[in-house]
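#lab-general

N.A. 3:47 PM
ok so I finally got the sequence cleaned up, no stray characters, all 854 residues accounted for. can someone with queue access submit it? mine expired

B.Y. 3:52 PM
send it over

N.A. 3:53 PM
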Amino acid sequence: MSDLESKAVAANPPSQALPGDAPSLGRYLALAAQLALFVGVVYQLNLESPAFLRLMILTFFGWSVHYFLPRKYRLAFFLLLSFAGIEMVFGQLWEKRWYGGVVDGTSILVIGLALIGICHLPVSIPWRAALLLLAGAGLAALRSAAGWVPWSHAIWPVLASMFMFRLIVYLYEIRREKKPASLTERLAYFFMLPNVCFPLFPVVDFQTFRRTYYDHRDRHQIYQTGMLWLFRGAFHLILYRLVYYNLVIDGTEVQNRADLAQFLLWPFLLYLRISGTFHVICGLMHLFGFNLPETHKLYLLSSSFTDFWRRINIYWKDFIMTVIYYPLYFKLRRLGDTGALVTATLLAFLATWLLHNYQWFWLRGTWIFTWNDFLFWMILAVLVAGNAVLEMRRGRTRRLQGAALPWRQALWSGLRTIGVFLTISVLWSLWSASSIGQWRSALDAAVVPSPDRTRLLLILLGVVVGIGGPAVALARGAGDHPRSLGPAAGGVGLPVAIAICASVPGLGSMLGGTASELIASASRSELNRRDFANAERGYYESLVNIGGFNPELWQVYAARPGEWTFLRNTPLARSTGRLPDFELRPGVSGRFHGASVHTNRWGMRDKEYEKAPPPNTLRIALLGSSHVFGDGVENEETFETLLEERLNEAGGRYERYEILNFAVGGYSALDCMAVLEDKVFEFEPRYIFYVELSGTVGRALRDVAAGARIPSDRRHDFLVGLLKEAGIEDAPADAQMREVLIPQQARFLGAIYSRFVELARAHDVPAYWIYMPRVAQEQSAELQLRLAKEAGFRILDLAGAYDGYNPKALEVAPWDQHPNALAHRLIADKLFEVLKRSEDTIPLGLTSVRTVQE
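B.Y. 4:20 PM
back already:
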C-alpha cells in the first residue's frame, strides 16, 4: 500500500467509509457473477469435499449480505458467518441424526474460547504459556482416548488447525500490541471462515491479520484479488490432479531411467494441492476484507534455495522467522554475522522438523519420526544456510521493476532455476518415499537405459520448457506485465473450461484420446492407482487426505450419513475365519446404504433358487464386488435382476434363464476365486460371469498376504506357493505390503485369474471376464484385461455403457460413486446387447427380442 493510501486509511477510521468503500450495484453484480462461477466450478469438478461446496454456498450468500453492510458491522458479521460455517459443516441440520454434529461444532467453539481465555488470564506471560501447555497436554490425552468425551473424533484436526500454531503466534504478539484488539478481532482470528474445511491451514500471524483488514483504499480491489486467487487455486488443484492421476509411480515400479525421472519429479509437483488450497483460503479471506499477502508466489520458479524458502510458504516462513530465527540470531551475534546466520538457520529448520511432527500429531493423532523426514529438513537447512552465506558475501541479484536482465544473466537465472527445481525434487522424493531403502533402490535404476527414450526426453524437455522458460521470461521482465502473459485469463479460463467440458454428457468421449483423459483426470477426486494399492502418500498428501486418518471427519466433510459403513460391519454379514473373511448371512433382511437388502437361504442377495437347476434352464453364476452386489440400490434394481428379466422376456431356446448373484461388497479377485471353489459349482451353472472394475488390484494383494496367514484355509498352500515363487518366504504384514507385494502384483493377479479359469475348466464351465466401467473417476484396467486374456478368460467389454449421461446422475449419493438404479439399468441394457452380439461365443439361445418399456 502506498504512503498516500496509508494516510487515507489513517484519516478514515473503520467506522467511516472511504470513497472506494461505497457499495456499487454494478461492481457487486460483476463480483457476484465471478463468485457464482467459482461455486459452479467447485460443484462440477468436485473440488476438495462436499462440505467445501456447502461452505462456498454459505459464503456466496453471506458475502452478498456482507458487501452491503456498513464497514463497522462487517467484522462481526464475518465472525457470525464463521460460527455458522462450523455448525453447518458439523451439524448437518437437514439430517434426522444431527444432534451429535451440533455437539461437535459447539465443542470446537467452547474449547477454543477456553484456550483464548487462558491467553488473557491476569497472570504473567510465562504462567499463561505454562497453563496453555498444561491444557494442551490434557487435550492430547483426550485426543488419544476420544471414546468417552461428548464429542466425536472428527473435531480434533479442525480444532488443532485453529489453535496449534495460532496460539503460539498470538501469545507471542499480544504482549507487543500497541493498540489493543477488540474481542471480535480476537475471535475472528481463531475462527476464520475457511478453517472448518481445511485442517491444513496457513499460519497467519495476528498482526498481519489485523493490519491487512481493509488496508486498501478501494475494497473492490481486495475483493477482485480474492476472486483471482480463488480461480488460481482451482487451477493449481486441477494441475495437481493431472499430476496425481498421470505421473505418480511407486518406487517399487521404477525399472529404468525414464521411470526414475518420473519418480523423482512427481512428489514435489503434488505440492500443487497445498498451493491450490492456500490460494483458495486466502482468496476467501480477501472476500471479507483481509488483504493477506500472496502465498506460494511462483515457488516452482525459485532461482536459489533462499529464494525457495521465501516463496514456498510465506506464512510458515514468517512464523519461523518471527518466533525462532530472529530471537536466535540476535542472541547469537557474538558468534559473528556468519556464525549467527548459519546457527540460527540450522536451529530454525530443526524447529521446523519438530513442529511438523507436532502438526502431524494434532492432525493425525500419531507421530512421524522417520529418518527420511529428518534428513529432508536438515539437508534443506544446509542448502538454505549455504545460499544465505553466499548472498551475504556476494550480495543478492535484484531486478528493478520494469527493468530486464541482459539475456546472458536471464539464461543463467533460468539454469539456476532448473537446478534448484531438480534438487528440491530429489529431496522431496526422499521425503515422500516409504523408506530410505526404497528410495535408494529406486535410484539403482539410473544405470538402466530406458527402452523408450522418447518418454525420458519428454520429461526432460518438460522441465526445461516448463521451468526454465518461465524463469527466463521473468528475468527478462515479463512478470512486470502479468496481463501480457495471460495468467489471469488462464487461471480463470482453464477451471471454467474443464468444468464446462465435464458437465456436457459424452463430450469427453467425443474428444477422445488425450483430451478425454485430461478432462477425466481433472474432475476426479478419488485415490489413484498407486494409492488404491498403498493407501499412502507424502507428508502433505497424508495430512490433506482426511479419509486416510480420520474417517469421522471425512464422513462430516462428505455429508455421509453415520450408517454409511462397510458391509462387513453390518448385521447382514458374518465372519468366516477363512477366505473370504466374511460372508452374507442366509435368510436375513436389513438396510444398507439407503436400500433394503434381502438374502436367500444360500446367503446370496437374490431370489430363492434350488441348488439343482430346473429342467431346460440355463443358469449363470455371477461373481464380483460391491458394484455387482448392488450397493445403494434395491434388490430388484440390480443389473443382475434386470438382465435376468430381459433374458426371460426375450424368449429363446431355454424355458428359463437364471442368474445367481454370488457378489458381495468388498470382495477381491481372490475372494471371488474362493467363492467359486467353495460354493458356485454346487449350483451347476452353465456359464460363469466374473465382473471386474478398474483399480481393484490392491485389494487382491492384501488378501494374498492375509490368506497366507490362515493355515486352515484350503488355499493356504496355493498362496504360500505364490509368495515363494516371488522370493518371499513369509506372508508380509500390512505395513510391508508396499515393498514386498506391489512389485509382484502382475504375477499374483495373473496366478489368481489362472486358478479361476482352471477351476472353471475342471468343471467344464466357460468363464467370462466382464469389464464394468465406473460411474465416474475411471482408471486404467489395461493390466487386469491383459492378465485376464493371458489366463484364458473370455472377455466381455461393457465400456461406453454410461455414454451420454452426466456421472452425477448415475451416482448413489454425492459421497458414494457406486452406480444407482439408472446406472444398473444401463449396465443391464449394455450387457444384454453384448450377449446378443456374442451368440457365437456364448450361445444363450436367444431367438427373439421384445422391447422392454422404460
